[in-house]
Specification:
There is one protein chain. The protein is mainly beta. It folds into two domains: 92 residues, Quinohemoprotein amine dehydrogenase alpha subunit, domain 2 (Lipocalin), CATH 2.40.128; 83 residues, Glutaredoxin (3-Layer(aba) Sandwich), CATH 3.40.30.10. Helix content is 11%, strand content 47%. Strands 1-2-3-5-6-7-8-9 form an eight-stranded antiparallel beta barrel.
Length: 192
C-alpha cells in the first residue's frame, strides 16, 4: 500500500467527479495517510488492510470519514463515506509520479479583471463590500471558508493568532459558504 495513488472520486459523474492524491504508508497491516485534493485534504487517516480489504477512517471534529476499498494489483476500488448521509465511489491506481495541479494556478482573476469585487450581507444583515471606506488603502485578505471545513478552521485559527499577537496592519474578510445558507443562495460575511 505504501506510495502515492492517483485517485478519482465519483468517477462516473460529470458533476461530482474530482481528482485526489492518496498518500499512504503501510507497516504490517497498519496503514496511515491521507487523500490530498485541490481544496485541502481528508485529514489524518488511519486503518488497516486485511485480506485485500483496506479500511481507513478519521474524525476531524466535524465529520467522520470512512474509506473502504478492495486492493488488487496496486489498484483500489471502494467507497468513501462521510458520516451517515453521504457516500461516493472511488478508484485509485498506484502512481508515485502523480501530482495534483499547482494550487497557485487554480485561483485567478478572469481575463480583463484587475481586482475582485463583491457585496454580501454580514452576520448582522449589513451589506459589506471591498469598496467600503474601512478597506480603502488597506491590505485585505479575503478567506473563502466553511465552518464545516477543517482546513478552513485551521486557517482561521492562524489568522486569529496573527491578529491577537500584534496590532494588525491587515484586514480580514471571511466569506463563509454554509450548507443551510447556500440553500437560500446567501453567503455569510465575517469581518475581523
Amino acid at each position: 500500500m505504501s506510495g502515492n495513488y492517483q485517485t478519482v472520486f465519483s468517477p462516473d459523474s460529470k458533476l461530482d467527479r474530482y481528482m485526489a492524491k492518496g498518500v499512504f504508508n503501510q507497516k504490517g497491516n497498519e496503514v496511515t495517510g491521507t487523500y490530498e485534493t485541490t481544496t485541502g485534504d481528508y485529514r489524518f487517516l488511519e486503518g488497516s488492510i486485511i485480506n485485500h480489504t483496506l479500511k481507513l477512517s478519521t474524525f476531524d471534529g466535524a465529520h467522520v470519514f470512512l474509506f473502504e476499498a478492495v486492493v488488487k494489483d496496486s489498484v483500489l476500488e471502494g467507497v468513501f463515506y462521510s458520516g451517515n448521509h453521504c457516500w461516493e465511489p472511488f478508484t485509485a491506481v498506484l502512481n508515485n509520479e502523480y501530482n495534483l495541479p499547482d494550487a497557485k494556478e487554480l485561483t485567478f482573476l478572469k481575463e480583463g479583471s484587475d481586482s475582485i469585487d463583491f457585496s454580501f450581507k454580514d452576520t448582522n444583515g449589513n451589506i459589506v463590500s471591498l469598496n467600503d471606506p474601512e478597506f480603502k488603502d488597506q491590505v485585505v485578505i479575503v478567506q473563502l471558508l466553511g465552518s464545516w471545513c477543517p482546513n478552513c478552521l485551521e486557517e482561521t485559527r492562524f489568522y486569529q493568532e496573527y491578529i491577537n499577537s500584534r496590532q494588525p496592519d491587515v484586514k480580514f474578510i471571511g466569506l463563509a459558504f454554509e450548507y443551510e445558507v447556500l440553500k437560500k443562495k446567501h453567503l455569510i460575511l465575517l469581518i475581523v
